[in-house]
User: What shape does this take?
Amino acid sequence: MLYEDKDLTFKVPDDWIVEDEDGVRSIFNEDGEGAITMSFYRIIKLEESIEKHIENMALKYVEDIDIKIEKNIELVTSSKEKSTVCMQGKTFDGWFLKLWVVAKFPTAIVITYWSEEETEEINTVDEIVESFKFKKE
Assistant: This one.
């Protein structure tokens, strides 16, 4: 199914649910292992490349919530359409986290996927995040 809002479109499997509440979007399968959360930000001032900016956002996020990084930050996409960085790790109590920051100036989206452990579901989550397309401004 194609999901569309004022800023972007993305594909989600038919058996997944998309909910918006208080500025946070959640995407999940009721029979799945984890959930995606998305928070939207406006970049007010860009003093460096968009890629460096979103890398710093990702590093600050994991630092603030004390994540043990297991897969270092990686630039996944860098194009006119969008820039994406991702990394993954575990919480102090062993929960799996994968984090992406996807941006097209002036919009940045921090996306997290949390589950008790890393499972095959992460492949579906990767496909959802990869399908993000920003609308033209």
Notes: The first strand starts at residue 2 and ends at 4.
